[in-house]
Amino acid sequence: MKIGMPKGLLYYRYYPFFKTFFNELGAEIITSPDTNKEILNLGIKYSIDEACLPIKIFHGHVAYLKDKCDIMLIPRIMQLRKSEFICPKFCGLPEMIVSDIPNMPKIISFPIYSYNKKSFMSFIKNSGSIFTKNIYKIKAAYSKALLVQNSLNLGIKDKNYDINIALVGHPYNLYDSFSNLNLIKKLHKLGIGVITEETIDENLINNEAASLFKKPFWTFARESYGFSVFSAKNNLVHGIIYISSFSCGIDSVLIELIKDSLKSFPMLILKIDEQTGEAGFDTRLEAFSDMLKRRCMIYENNISSTR
Q1: Rounded distance, CA 87 to CA 70, Å?
Q2: Cross-strand partners of 166
């Protein structure tokens, strides 16, 4: 059986697990290509206008794959951490896809609650039983997939750059080089190194997020806030670049919380959608880069003058 795995949304974080799990059960994994103009155009064609760019891109990946597989994985991710949730669009993603795209194959859309092993096993058993009724084989596939996922080193922590920035945002915005217009490559070309949240101890991120007046309701909000504030307060970076999808409700609140906490710390907000122009994008990056370099030069001159 061929399983279609769209290369969008949280594919960038969890693809080793799902690929290994279904491979171990004897399935063949078919993935869509990296996001490109064709994928985006398909997404715009089938998705509603009000959807954010990542959802439109996911639609495009699904449309590309639907005639190339026997069954498709449309993850209905509900919770990654207890008492927290992620974007509501993930909860209704299967219904959204089936409603928007005609002639879909059968889909795997069992709810995913992954805040502990017991809650996650419901998805494992239900999805595994599609391929085998042998519970021991399903559990063995789960163990192998977990091992592969845990051995993967995610994130970016550049070295040998005089200036570094914290690159913040949802993972599908950070690691989809088409939708973010090759942001990381552009930063490197400007002589700026990148650090992402995966390279920071989760306990340090959680401790920083705990200082908020109210416990974060959204998992991505907790991660991004804790990482941004911790990196800035501990001088790990010279600035922050937050890349956000246009019309993202979670980001609109979170960005203001970060700004309020860090006050005058350099922060650039980059909004992306299907209309984002590269020329304006580049101009803002170059201006931010020049500002960071001037700040570093002034700081170094002040240090030199006090010696």
Answers
A1: 28
A2: 195, 240
Q: For 275-292, how does the pLDDT look when each residue is reduced to its tens digit (9 = 90+)? A: 877 888 899 999 999 999
| 25: amino acid identity, one letter | L
- The confidence score (pLDDT) of residue 300 equals 65
Instruction: Kindly state the helix (H) or strand (E) to which residue 303 belongs, with its residue range.
Output: helix 278-305
Residue 303 corresponds to which tokens in the numbers above? 């240090």
Three-class secondary structure of residue 296 per DSSP? helix
Distance CA 210, CA 255 (A): 17
This prediction's pTM: 0.92
Residue reference for tokens 């930063």: 187
The percentage of the chain sitting over the pLDDT mark of 70, rounded to a whole number, equals 97
From CA 202, how far away is CA 226, in angstroms rounded?
9
Q: Would you list the DSSP string of 78-138?
A: EESSTT-B--HHHHTHHHHHHHHSSS--EEE--EEE-SSHHHHHHHHHHHHTTT-S-HHHH
The Cα-based distances of 273 to 49, 173, 255, 292 in angstroms read 11, 10, 17, 26
Q: Quote the CA–CA distance of 141 and 138 in Å, as a whole number.
A: 5
DSSP, res 56? H
Which tens digit of pLDDT belongs to each residue from 129-172? 999 999 999 999 999 999 999 888 889 999 999 999 999 999 89
CA distance 120 to 127: 11
DSSP 183-252: HHHHHHHTTEEEE-GGGS-HHHHHHHHTTSSS--SBHHHHHHHHHHHHHHHTTS-SEEEEEEETT-HHHH
Burial of 94 (0-12, 13-18, 19+ CB in 10 A): buried
